[in-house]
Amino acid sequence: MSPVVALVGAGPGDPELLTRRALDRLSKADLVLNDALVPEVLLELAPKARRFFVGKRAGRHSIEQATIHRIMIRAAKRGERVVRLKAGDPFVFGRGGEEALALLAAGLEFEVVPGVSSALAGPALAGIPVTHRGVASGFVVVSGHAPTAWKPVLSGLSAANVTIVVLMGIAARRDIAHFLIERGFSARTPAAIVCAASQPEATRWLGTLESLAQAELASHEGPGVLVIGEVVQLARTLLPSEPMAFALAALG
Questions:
Q1: pTM over cut 0.85
Q2: Does the structure show a pLDDT above 70 at 171?
Q3: Check whether domain 118-248 has CATH 3.30.950.10, yes or no
Q4: How far apart are alpha carbons 197 and 116 in whole angstroms?
Q5: Which of 14, 72, 86, 168 is catalytic?
Q6: What is d(CA 10, CA 145) in angstroms, rounded to the nearest whole number?
Q7: Cβ(90)–Cβ(9) below 8 Å
Q8: Catalytic residue (one of 24, 28, 30, 56)
C-alpha cells in the first residue's frame, strides 16, 4: 500500500511525459494540491479528487508555504490520499524537501514520485543536449529568480565545457548575460530561450549571450528556461525546422 501523501512531479506539462506511478497516484487521490504551472489536463487525471490551487507566481500574492504544510497534514490525518502535484520534479526548486520534512515531523508516511525537470526537458525538446562529447562534459542548473540565487554559482564557472541552465530566469536574462560577459564569457557564446516546453504554445529562441541581453519576447504565462553554452549550436542541426507544436521564434 502506498503512503498517504505523495509528492508528485508533473514534468513539463505533457501528460505523456508523466510516470506510470504519477498517473496511479493521481487516479487514487482524494485531494490534489497543485502548482501554478500544472496544466488543467493533468488535473483531469484525478477525477475523484478535490483540487486546491497553492501555486506561487512572481509578483503575485500566494499562499504561504506553512499553510500548504498544514493543509497536507490535516488532510492526511483525516485519512485522505493527498497528492502534492508539482511542475517538473518535486526536488528541483520545488520546495519538495521542505514539505517532506514537514510531513516527517508530523509523523506521516510520504513518498516522492520524481518528474522530468524542465531543466532537462526544456533543452531536450528544443533540440539541445545539455551534455555532448567534445562540447560540454557537464551542466549546472540554477534558479534565476534573484541575483543571490544565481550569482554565487555562476561566478565560479568558466565558459569551457559546461552548459548553464537557468530556471525562472526569463526576467533576469539581461542581467545574467551581462554578468557572464563581464566574467569573461564571449559575447558570441550560444544561448537559447525555451518557453512552455511540451505545450502547444511552446517557443524557442536561438542567439548569443550578446543578443540574449537585447532579446525582446512577447509576454507569456508559461515557464521559461535559459540555456547558455556551445551545445546550443546543436539545436540548428538536431531541430532545424519548426516541428508541430514547437514554433521557432526568429529573434536571434
A1: yes
A2: yes
A3: yes
A4: 12
A5: 168
A6: 21
A7: yes
A8: 56
Question: CATH class for domain 5-113?
Answer: alpha beta
Distance CA 80, CA 133 (A): 48
What is the C-alpha to C-alpha distance for residues 62 and 66, in angstroms, rounded to an integer?
12
Which pLDDT score, from 0 to 100, does residue 250 have?
37
Tens-digit pLDDT profile for residues 78-87: 999 999 999 9
What angle (nearest 5°) sits at the alpha carbon of residue 101, between those of residues 139 and 108?
Answer: 130
Q: Domain coordinates of the chain in residue numbers?
A: 5-113, 118-248
Contact residues for 179 (Cβ-Cβ < 8 A; gap 6+): 151, 154
Active-site option among 14, 35, 72, 86: 35
Catalytic residue check, 175: no
- What the block records as the C-alpha cell of 118 is 524542465
Q: Is 56 a catalytic residue?
A: yes
